[in-house]
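Why does this matter for the project? Reviewers at the last site visit asked to see concrete outputs rather than summary tables. In response, this paragraph embeds two records directly. Each consists of the residue sequence and, immediately after it, the corresponding structure tokens. Nothing has been edited or filtered.
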Amino acid sequence: QVQLVESGGGLVQPGGSLSLSCAVSGFTEDYHVIGWFRQAPGKEREGVSCFSLADLSTSYADSVKGRFTISRDKALNTVYLEMNGLEPDDPAVYYCAAAGNTLPCNYWSGYDAWGQGTQVTVSS
């Protein structure tokens, strides 16, 4: 079983930046994609961005394109989500997740391993 631990959440002003980290350990060879999701109070969880370990492709939700960047440090087994230009609609608990299937990484319902989440708050 793979383990995922998020860190880096916090409070930031509108327009500010945060960088989230997801440390991946365990049976990492069984998983092919890593994704970032978020869930705001009263809203459904949504896929934000993902990274395919097979072909190094990435995908972004339309709401974050041009503002968020996903990346990976292979040596550290860590996936990052750099968030710039944070907006009032961005606050949520952000989760890192992994999927063992070989479908495109933005097949958001295919993820089966989850971290505990990290809170992102945007407020002036």
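We now turn to the second protein, recorded in exactly the same manner.
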Amino acid sequence: EVQLVESGGGLVQPGGSLRLSCAASGFTVDDYAMSWVRQAPGKGLEWVSSISSYISSTYYADSVKGRFTMSTDNAGNTVYLQMNSLKSEDTAVYYCAKVIGRVAGGMDYWGKGTLVTVSS
């Protein structure tokens, strides 16, 4: 059974950092592309980042480029999102999702999300 469990969210001041983790089970994260997607209060889903270990590539939304870093830990079967220089507009529930393909495609499994609140 495929499962994704996010952790690491919390309250942080503007300019601060957080690292989100996504523990995967039921598949190997390096065999599929993985994504982070967020939903701010009262807004729709926003794609944040994707990674494909198969082609060693990582992609970011313009809104987070240069501040966020996505990575995988094959040994721990975990996906990470390092978030630096956080802004109030980064406040959202962050979801980890498995992509159907090795490089791109729709997302077929989602975690339940972890809340990140950026506020002073």
